Amino acid sequence: MVTAVYDVVIVGAGLMGSAAAYYAAKQGKRVLVLEQFELLHGKGSSHGSSRIFCVAYPNDVYTELSLQSLKMWQAIEKENDVELIRMTGELDFAPTRKDDLRGLEETLTRFNVPFEVLNAAQVNERFPGFSLPANSHAVYNPLAGVLNPTLAMATMQKVANGLGAEFREHSPVKSVEGEHQTGEAPVAVVTLANGTVVRGRQCIVTAGPWTDKLLKLSGSDNVKLQPIATFGAYWRCKQELYTPEKFPVFIKYGYPEVYGLPMMNAHEGVKICRHDGPDVNPDERQGVAQREAEQEWLQAFVAENFSHVDSSAPNHVDHCMYTMTLDSNFILDFLPVPANAASPTATKRIVVGAGFSGHGAKMTPVIGQILTDLAIKGTTNHSTEVFRITSTICVGWSTTTTSTNTMAKSHGDKKRRRNDKKHAANNSNAAAQQIRAVKSQANAIFSLTASSNPNPKNLGPFSDRQRILVVGDGDFSFSLSLAVFLGGKNLVATCYDSKLDLKEKYSNALLNCDALETAGAEVHFDVDATNLEKENWLNGAQPFQSIVFNFPHLGGATEADVANNQKLLRNFFYSTRQYLHPTRGQVLVSLRNTLFYNRWKIQEQAAASGFKLKRTEVFDASIYSGYEPQRTHPASFRGEPPSTTGAHYFIFTLDKSIEVVDPRQQATQEPKAARSSAVKKGTAKKKAAAPPTKMTCQPCGLTFRDVKKYNGHMNSAKHAKKAKALKKKH
């Protein structure tokens, strides 16, 4: 059955679809809105009574849109005599690093938004619902509050319906296509699951988490999005401290990001939630629960920062979904024209509004207006360069590479990823698919880093504002995880192995290198982290804000091995001195907290090279999406990957109050000086030289008397290959 042609057909009646219907109907257009569930349902991303409205972003693009949306929300409120936003002010805070908030301050200054910089004591006194730790930093501004999304949708739908817009509930859409028949104007053809065909001069797709699936069913692979499940946790609290008058909305910066809103209903409590969650198929959303570790982390966070909140367990949990793009930028664009399209103009009938990545609700009015402008006029007065499909990087859940989203959290199951990789290694077709996926990821990274990214990001202790040098990165997977999220233009990745050895030792290493270089990162092989001065490419290089060495280890567990690893650390620290930024430079070393590693006495080794400990923080390997820790000897330890359990980052800065001597020179000069002194005093005694210890490599049947040669052999591709073959044989 074919129905009449509408001016605009909108797929999805959430916040964005309702806003598009509102603005299209106000222009007198004939509008049809198709919703697969009932109106105002709670199965997607737009339901509930509270979302943060704020204007404070660390970039101009979203701050400008939010300020425009505030005026538009106020106009809707006035027109309909309804309160959609309850103003509360906003507190943005970071647990330790004031630098995380610098972008906010700069943006608010440019847009003349008043703000205050507060320390923890000032926050806790002014807003007694908080109990921030003493080292916290905060920025407060008054232009923020709580948006009621369900009431906003109902208001816009009521206005649109009153102006003639038609809303059809329980009307799931099967496909959306452009059509151009001879002698007729191009139209969008929307086919419903029941076979009904609807035609519109334009179609706007605002299907939220179902957008990716719908467009794939329609034959388009240009837009790939990753829905994630999120959990809105409400907590019992001392109610008088958490009302909108006493408690502002807040965002905690740094991974994991946390946000909160005041108590809007006494029976629910104060809302405090993590801004992340696991990947999810939107049709299988029911039954997906928050991971136990993430629940426990949030409970600990609540206990530390909100002393008047019962952190034992949430009082109530709402389920929601975000639809993520890799860089968290929205998609507001025409569906790209397929290369084999019979009529390119037909595809221009379809406008996509998607990928709002957990921060689009506040900008609903301006997004609705942009989508309507594109559909009706073909252009808009708003700047949409960053929202084009070719500018926004998206990730689908069907690739064999790790799914990545804006929180840089590995939302997919880590064990599943490892199993996928093992399966791919044993299946040539799967391996070929994996290679294509990695190359596709590299191209996506290049698109991201080549375009202007308006979202400054932090990943653990790292930021895209830092110039970062990674040393000793076994298979380059850690560096690639940084490049995927932070971009590659400020990243230099190195490893100790030669390119040939790397290829033999780690199957995916060269693919990771290709992806890094495509992302704009520098990649170098044969780099000795204890002697960086010999690297010509470092001559005249810009200083680094972060130099990273993850899990340094020369192998072995004897007292001699401990001494060798202590020496490795001392020499590494000293080697970094001249390449660090003079005021903002830091050296990061990750180590596990075990008796063996504690014997290395990392703080003593750092002090010997003129460094002091700034802080430590937990090394959470799961946030570095796709990172697979590697052993120095891949064939050892039954092929198992090394554990990162109990690992921490030790973060050091230069101690300019002390003078140090190059420990690498001390190692060679001190014995000579001691002998000379002994001869002068006539106390030198001839002693029989101790026979050098023999070191044997059992798999290769080779014996060494020189430690350097032994370690070099144990790190070689030849040894790895022999050990692997021997393991298979047994």
Automatic annotation (TrEMBL):
<keyword id="KW-0285">Flavoprotein</keyword>
<feature type="domain" description="C2H2-type">
    <location>
        <begin position="697"/>
        <end position="719"/>
    </location>
</feature>
<dbReference type="GO" id="GO:0070042">
    <property type="term" value="F:rRNA (uridine-N3-)-methyltransferase activity"/>
</dbReference>
<dbReference type="GO" id="GO:0050660">
    <property type="term" value="F:flavin adenine dinucleotide binding"/>
</dbReference>
<feature type="region of interest" description="Disordered">
    <location>
        <begin position="403"/>
        <end position="430"/>
    </location>
</feature>
<keyword id="KW-0274">FAD</keyword>
<dbReference type="Pfam" id="PF01266">
    <property type="entry name" value="DAO"/>
</dbReference>
<dbReference type="InterPro" id="IPR006076">
    <property type="entry name" value="FAD-dep_OxRdtase"/>
</dbReference>
<keyword id="KW-0560">Oxidoreductase</keyword>
<dbReference type="InterPro" id="IPR019446">
    <property type="entry name" value="BMT5-like"/>
</dbReference>
<dbReference type="GO" id="GO:0008115">
    <property type="term" value="F:sarcosine oxidase activity"/>
</dbReference>
<dbReference type="InterPro" id="IPR013087">
    <property type="entry name" value="Znf_C2H2_type"/>
</dbReference>
<feature type="region of interest" description="Disordered">
    <location>
        <begin position="663"/>
        <end position="695"/>
    </location>
</feature>
<comment type="similarity">
    <text>Belongs to the MSOX/MTOX family.</text>
</comment>
<dbReference type="Pfam" id="PF10354">
    <property type="entry name" value="BMT5-like"/>
</dbReference>
<dbReference type="GO" id="GO:0070475">
    <property type="term" value="P:rRNA base methylation"/>
</dbReference>
<protein>
    <recommendedName>
        <fullName>sarcosine oxidasee (formaldehyde-forming)</fullName>
        <ecNumber>1.5.3.1</ecNumber>
    </recommendedName>
</protein>
<dbReference type="InterPro" id="IPR045170">
    <property type="entry name" value="MTOX"/>
</dbReference>
<feature type="compositionally biased region" description="Basic residues">
    <location>
        <begin position="412"/>
        <end position="421"/>
    </location>
</feature>
